[in-house]
Write a structure and sequence with these properties.
Jelly Rolls; 11 strands; four-stranded antiparallel sheet; seven-stranded antiparallel sheet; alpha+beta
Length: 238
């Protein structure tokens, strides 16, 4: 559970870390989803690095049918999103509950101090022996928006280690609001909450195994283009 100390750290440093924030069942569910999507893309002949830049978005990778207006409708989003693991009869966890309730209405709303909307979600998959080909450049999440209005919108990213991460297998490095730099080494199931204004990077994977992470992003209001279309998702979390 996030504490008052976590909230203060997020406000003053731009990030905070919750060790072992997911239950074993939740961690396994997201880990299995990462493998399902990765295996699907590989079976279709895609290269995770060259074709996707290590970023596998459930809604745009071709696995899900997102033809309906799922991006603003909670019920439609949940039905389609949960279908990634539809064939696992032993799984009592639903992805939509983890994303919208735990990440969204519990954690993100606490850090942003208001109602939040799911903005984006993605798995970050770094293949083995990809030290030189899988790092990300230093950036702030707000840098990716073309519209200045969107850059002014405060958002929070919830970066979750689905495998234990360290300097060897590809983790994130942070330069906080106070000028300090930290390399994040945490066990699987831990979450790093980051402000859209936080400068950070992601290192390459030199290990012999895949390294999986999952990231959700939340905004305090829907991010829309001038024509009213969503930038990505705009699912209200409550």
């Amino acid at each position: 559970m996030l504490t008052g100390a976590n909230i203060l750290e997020f406000q003053t440093k731009g990030y905070t870390i919750l060790i072992n924030g997911l239950s074993e069942a939740e961690l396994k569910h997201l880990h299995d989803e990462a493998d399902t999507l990765t295996n699907y893309l590989i079976s279709e002949g895609y290269d995770i690095i060259n074709d996707f830049g290590c970023i596998v978005e459930p809604w745009s990778c071709g696995f899900l049918d997102g033809s309906s207006d799922y991006n603003m409708d909670r019920d439609k989003y949940s039905k389609i999103r949960n279908s990634i693991s539809w064939n696992n009869s032993c799984d009592t966890v639903q992805a939509s509950d983890i994303v919208l309730s735990k990440y969204g209405s519990t954690w993100a709303s606490l850090l942003l101090q208001q109602q939040v909307y799911l903005l984006n979600e993605q798995f970050i998959i770094k293949p083995p022996f990809s030290l030189l080909s899988s790092p990300f450049a230093w950036h702030k999440d707000s840098d990716y928006y073309q519209d200045e209005r969107h850059r002014q919108e405060r958002t929070v990213a919830c970066w979750t280690a689905l495998d234990t991460v360290d300097e060897n297998n590809g983790t994130i490095e942070i330069k906080d609001f106070l000028g300090n730099q930290e390399t994040i080494c945490v066990p699987a199931g831990s979450i790093v909450f980051m402000s859209d204004q936080l400068l950070h990077t992601s290192t390459g994977n030199a290990s012999s195994k895949f390294r999986r992470a999952y990231m959700t992003q939340f905004s305090s209001s829907p991010l829309l283009y001038q024509d009213g279309q969503c930038v990505a998702l705009a699912i209200k979390c409550d």
